[in-house]
Design a protein that fits this description.
This protein is of the alpha+beta class. The protein folds into two domains: 5-154, Gyrase A, domain 2 (2-Layer Sandwich); 186-343, Gyrase A, domain 2, CATH 3.30.1360.170. It is built from 13 helices and eight strands. The strands form two sheets. The protein has a four-stranded antiparallel sheet, with helices on both faces. It starts with a strand and ends in an 11-residue tail after the last helix.
């Protein structure tokens, strides 16, 4: 029987992207080399597969029978974050079904199949990834990939309201002929951004079917962390001078917090507390305004939902500023967003 599935797209240098996510979490960029992506194998071998929850793999199914549909449902039982669409009339390709998932979802299903869960159609997807070293590397230790500079780590470091786009597959999938609806479901965009923790926690609410990371407060010392200046103080009764006093007081409190954090670390070090545990304890005094760095990968549908809620006058001012800076980045890369309604 002829092959009935094509591998339409996979994230370029996928292991390097996953390494970038892990390195940012631990701030271990000093250990990066052309082969240092291998350290994520040790992380994943311990069951920590979440580092592979970024990126994208997209398949096109050329012929479909009842077994395909049944197996897709079995795959969704294993991991609910697999995505598929049945081809619409405005699609410019020949595939009745498009399937996409990140490497975390793929590995979760593969592990279930290896454990005896019979899903014949997944075997056809696996045949294609077996032939693709960048993908097979994640689960086959006999596969090695060519040493190469990690281009994701070479990208600029984000600043508050200055996000960086790590990956986007909207352009590639649009060139394959995916329709507007299919792009919403299957195209993913990975953004590296800096925000305060309070705003970041709001943004995680929109994170179904996504992957990402933020700075580890167990391994990363936050003793000199930046604090975000709150936007747009407004008062009908107080003078500007009094509001300036509030800003000055906030800065003083932040500085005091940094000093207390550092003092706690020193005191616990003197008492022999493990450094990682000391950071875990000391972080309990850090305020919501502390700045953190987050990488998030979302399907376009969810980015639309996010912008609909946060690029709004009803949203918190800091969230508005972050959302609008990301939206401008999307527009710069030619990614079409829904502007008038939530999809």
């Amino acid at each position: 029987m002829d092959q009935r599935v094509d591998l339409l797209y996979f994230t370029e240098q996928y292991p390097k992207l996953v390494e970038m996510v892990a390195r940012q979490c631990y701030q271990s960029f000093d250990k990066v080399s052309e082969t240092s992506h291998s350290f994520i194998r040790s992380i994943m071998s311990k069951g920590h597969l979440s580092v592979a929850s970024v990126g994208n793999i997209v398949f096109g199914v050329k012929s479909v029978d009842e077994q395909v549909y049944l197996d897709l449902m079995k795959m969704k039982e294993v991991n609910n974050f697999i995505r598929w669409t049945i081809t619409s009339t405005d699609s410019m390709h020949r595939y009745p079904i498009i399937i996409s998932m990140n490497m975390l979802t793929f590995l979760d299903i593969k592990n279930s199949v290896d454990a005896g869960n019979k899903i014949p159609f997944f075997g056809e997807l696996l045949e294609l990834t077996n032939e693709t070293p960048i993908l097979a590397w994640f689960y086959d230790r006999n596969v090695e990939i060519e040493p190469k500079l990690n281009e994701y780590i070479q990208k600029p470091t984000p600043a508050v309201e200055e996000p960086v786009m790590m990956t986007e597959d909207y352009t590639a999938l649009k060139s394959v002929g995916l329709s507007e609806h299919e792009l919403l479901i299957h195209a993913t965009i990975t953004i590296n951004y800096m925000t305060d923790r309070a705003t970041g926690l709001q943004f995680w609410r929109h994170g179904d079917m996504t992957g990402g990371t933020e700075l580890s407060q167990r391994y990363v010392n936050r003793g000199s962390a930046q604090f975000r200046e709150m936007i747009g103080f407004e008062s009908e009764s107080e003078s500007d001078d009094n509001l300036k006093d509030i800003r000055s007081k906030l800065k003083s409190l932040y500085d005091e917090c940094n000093q207390n954090y550092n003092d706690l670390l020193l005191e616990m070090a003197d008492l022999g507390v493990h450094a990682a545990r000391a950071k875990e304890v000391a972080r309990s005094i850090l305020p919501n305004a502390i700045v953190t760095q987050i990488i998030q990968c979302r399907p376009l549908h969810q980015w639309n939902h996010f912008f609909h809620l946060r690029d709004s006058n009803h949203a918190q001012k800091e969230a508005q500023a972050d959302a609008r800076s990301m939206k401008q980045l999307f527009e710069k890369h030619g990614i079409v967003l829904s502007s008038d309604k939530e999809e």
